[in-house]
Amino acid sequence: MRRALTFCGVLQMKKGFLFNYLIALVIILTLNFILPRLMPGDPLQAIYGCEAMIVMTPELKAELTRRFSLDMSLDRQFQSYIASLLRGDFGHSYFYNVPVSKVILGCFPWTILLVGLALFISTGLGVLAGVESGYRRGLPPDRFLLGLFMGLSGLPDFFIGILLLLVFGVSLGLVPLAGAVTPYSGQGTAAIVLDVLHHLALPLAALVLSRITAIYLLTRNTMITTLGENFIITARAKGCANHVIRYRHAGRNSLLPVVTAAGLQLSHLITGALFVEIVFSYPGLGTLLYNSLLTRDYPLLQGILLLATLTVLTVNFLVDIIYSKIDPRICYAH
Amino acid sequence: MTVSYNGLPVLNDINLTLKKGESLSIIGESGAGKTTLGLSIMGLVEGSCSGEILFNGINIPGLQEEELRRLRGREMAMVFQNMGDALHPLYTVLDQVVEAISVHSRADGASLYKKALDLLISTGLDEKTANSYPHQISGGQKQRAMIAMAMANNPGVLILDEPTASLDAGTKAEIIAMLKNMAGDRITLMITHDISSAAIFSEKVAVLYGGRLVESGRTEEVFSNPRHPYTRGLIRSYPDLSTTKDLQGIPGRMNHGVTGCPFHPRCTQRIEICCRETPKPENVNGRVIACHRGGIVPVLEIRNLSKSFNTVKAVQNLDLTLYEGETLSLVGESGSGKTTLARTVMGLLNQDKGEIFLEGERVSGKTAKFYQRVQMVFQNPMESISHRMNVLQAVREPLDVNRNEGQDARKELVRRVLDEVELPGDDTFLNKYPHHLSGGEAQRVAIARALVLDPKIIIADEATSALDASVQAKILRLLMSIQEKRGLAIILITHDIALARKVSDRMAVMINGVIIEEGPSARVINNPEHDYTRNLIGYTRNGKI
Q1: Which of A55, A103, B273, B441 is least surrounded by Cβ atoms within 10 Å, i.e. has the fewest?
Q2: CA distances (Å), origin B206, targets B187, B225, B228, B285
Q3: Is there a contact between A237 and B77 if contact means CB atoms under 8 Å apart?
């Protein structure tokens, strides 16, 4: 179908819309800046932890104080904090002894790959199953899908992960037990891609399975409501085929709450990924976060959290844009 | 055809035939099954549908879903009630019309859009509106878009479900004119509760009640002369600019699953068989009526009646028919023979010639049975109630004459009927004598006396002319409400044509013992045929407040 001539979406609401995100961003940055400084004792101690303070030489301490502008007023400190963030300087990882940004960049792509794919696959499959199930409400296929997904939703993601690992990894030996790539095996792009997918399969499956029920139930529910609307009868009276009614008419309408939910669920997905990555020793942000917690690598921890919040913010922004494209009415709803 | 939802019948024994080019309106109250009928024809009804719907020889309920799908939108299309969400909220109007065409054709994109746009423009929308989403356009524009969508494949059958509901008068008129223009030689079926739209749009009309057809026929005939009590009730409840009588409703409410005639719980002329058996629709001269009593019954027929006093011919060869539940005004100046007619009918005077029939039976002599059915209210209540009787005795007297109940039962009946005419039923009032009562009270007592036998006909001879306007208004409203409740037929004799206009369904103008003009009140008032009537209306107009 042809798009509407007026592409209202972003153009009309951009200003107010962007402004909201800007406020959220400023609040996040401020909190991130102010929390270590509110803690009792030396901000350096708060930032680097007690263990670090023991081995810290006075020279190093002076150097760090200068670097964080701790000897200056609070507003100058904030300025230099923002300036360093803009330079991509998230601080220095005490544990890895490299800049935080470098450590994070090493792991971030893996998490993006895992979480992004999980988001797409679970939403896609969930919507598909929800549409088909809602259309056949009360019939055997609907009851089967409903039972299956309700059962799955009872299992926590790490448990599904362990289960998958035991069955497919340990017993059947179909997939590797840990990691994201086989070290030193890379020759040829195709081989590398296959290797990555091979490693990705189980953690991805665990995340998708733990998340799909929510999307499925939401779609099915909206589908049932939408099928009772008058425009569905209009479509049937036009002589539309069943699959057209299911997807183009009812399905598209059922997509609206799903898109919102997908954006909201991203934060859950990130915490979900944390457990799953640990279970599969997947070298993503989750594993990194876990390690940084164990080693009390506070700068790294802060960097990861900041990145996670920024990601959630960005995705929500994207969802808002997508939403205004699939629902023309949203431009007028204020 | 019979349609039921979960075993609960919604439509019963519907038989309709439409030829190419015919237009039919289905009218009835909400819940009568009108929309279900439309959906059944489209094969969209969710319940089970038995019987046959033949379209060009194809039986629709017997078709497979895929075959049905190919018919829908191409051979037969439906315009749905404009409920706000009959159009998909996420696609532009143009896209939705394009879809309606593309479902049934293989035309390429550009020509599809061109055709869809042309269709929308032909329904009076512009290009900008066509490219709008449903939430951006008005109700009337949505209705036009729905019509364009239904016309997309030039269907042979067009079903319109309340196409004018919730539209303003101007838009409504435009849309009806456009639809009439589009109808051409297709079969059009309009489902509506809007009688005026039905009257303009279609040549035939069918009245649906409780899932059954109760009356059908040519539109103007059905509307000018409704034969089924339900049709008359519908028309009486529907105001138009020529309506003269106050609006009257239909007592009770619609119930489904009624045994016998679906309308019998609300019908004022029901007899025993109506509760037991469903009436079969019968075709008399192109008019189909499903009623055990053959439609609204004539309760009183006067044929060729003459009465003269010596050389004065007070009533000459007069014919008059009074139907169940209607008010017939007999209008004329003093000395025109109105009262003589009333008294002759009541048997107070003997006719010289002619016959009177009560509910189909010839009246011969004064029988108790006749007076149980016909009662009279006279002009001067103070005179018509005996000075020597108190209220209780006066109202009870007809019971004493006609019935055998005990004293207590009679007293109870008196109290009930006094309550009905809005008089107190306590002992103080019952013991009052006529000279204790005001004019209005005395006339109510006289009406109570007439009503106590539960008659079918009341002849009111200048019954309110001695009363002041506000009491007159109250008493007439009282009579109208009893009419609505019980189906009372009233002959209102008056010289006041303005009053007659307000309360009567039909009017007969009398002069020198002859009825010179007779017809529906609205017609007589708005379009008088006789000079005398015209003058009478003219005099009344001059006295306008």
Answers
A1: A55
A2: 15, 14, 11, 15
A3: yes
